[in-house]
UniProtKB/TrEMBL annotation:
Record keyword Transcription regulation present: yes
Taxonomic source organism: Rhizobium helianthi
Protein name: LysR family transcriptional regulator
HTH lysR-type domain mapped to chain residues: 7-64
Lineage start: Bacteria, Pseudomonadati, Pseudomonadota, Alphaproteobacteria, Hyphomicrobiales
Keyword vocabulary terms for this entry: DNA-binding, Transcription, Transcription regulation
Length: 312
């Protein structure tokens, strides 16, 4: 008579760590154990289940079809374990564990980063893994638990909610305007140097600003990094479309052609399998709160405040 498969929750943790990273070394680092231990635990789990969960190749571990189905089961166990731990601790929804958040560079560096201390105070047992290389993260493959995106998926097993609207405008440094003047009309934009994204590396349609400003603009300096674009703009190398919440932090920048404003949106997206997880719910609530408390900076270029302080 065939015995029933025997494995523990620990085995499922090892399985999920490898499934999410595809690498033994990455999983080992996350679990604070050795490469050999992870390999041994995966072998043990496959032996207990009598199925092959991963294909091994030189680039890492790739889930088999059976393994992909088993991820859903393992994540349901993970969620129930988190709930049970929270109930036993008497702390309500689970507020511990690791959350891997994928978010655009601008949102991450110029807004979220300054709220890290608040996150630590609210959830001292939660660890954040912040990934800003958004174009390579796939929620469908569980490479990220939660994502802030400009363009939400049209379909699929995802929880989607709007986080905030935000506005953008064309900016230039004071030095640039002193040397070259400011454009007075949309067509005059073609007489100025522009800074923008590398066209064939734009990973979200929402980042294609220049096409909305004027279809004939050809940027002389292109970068996949909003930080590099900002630095170039502040150094007087050209005009650049920037979000209010970034540009308003720099007194050496000024908006030009005030009628040319763009609206974009940030959305929160996570897989339906994870939306009930305590750690994910806690992170979503935290992001909602900090954005709601700072709505004015997403929608205002800060000119009134700057003039009041005598800086503009």
């Amino acid at each position: 008579m065939m015995s029933k498969p025997h494995f523990t929750w620990d085995d499922l943790q090892f399985f999920l760590a490898v499934a999410r990273s595809g690498q033994l070394s990455t999983a080992a680092k996350k679990l604070r154990t050795s490469h050999a231990t992870v390999s041994r635990r995966i072998d043990r789990l496959e032996f207990a289940l009598r199925v092959k969960l991963f294909e091994r190749n030189p680039r890492g571990y790739v889930l088999t079809q059976v393994g992909q189905r088993f991820v859903e089961t393992a994540e349901r166990v993970e969620q129930e374990t988190e709930r049970l731990q929270a109930e036993l601790a008497g702390s309500g929804p689970a507020q511990q564990g690791v959350v891997r958040l994928s978010a655009p560079e601008g949102f991450s560096n110029f807004f979220l980063a300054r709220h890290f201390s608040k996150l630590s105070e609210r959830h001292p047992n939660m660890s954040l893994e912040l990934v800003t290389i958004q174009q390579i993260m796939a929620l469908s493959k569980k490479e990220a638990d939660l994502a802030v995106v400009l363009d939400p998926p049209k379909a699929g097993p995802y929880h989607v909610e709007k986080l905030t609207d935000y506005a953008l405008q064309i900016y230039a440094s004071h030095d640039y305007v002193a040397r070259y003047g400011a454009p007075q009309s949309r067509d005059e934009l073609l007489n100025h140097k522009f800074i923008g994204y590398i066209q064939d590396m734009i990973f979200a349609p929402g980042l294609d600003y220049l096409g909305d400003i004027h279809p004939k603009i050809q940027p002389g300096l292109q970068s996949s990094s909003i930080f590099a674009q900002l630095t170039a703009t502040r150094n007087g190398l050209g005009l650049c479309v920037l979000p209010f919440f970034i540009a308003r932090q720099y007194a050496d920048l000024q908006p030009v052609l005030n009628q040319m404003k763009l609206d974009r949106h940030y959305w929160l997206v996570c897989h339906n399998d994870l939306v009930q997880s305590g750690r994910i719910r806690s992170m979503i609530a935290f992001l909602r709160d900090i954005v709601a408390a700072d709505q004015e900076q997403f929608l205002s270029n800060g000119l009134t405040q700057s003039r009041r302080r005598g800086t503009g």
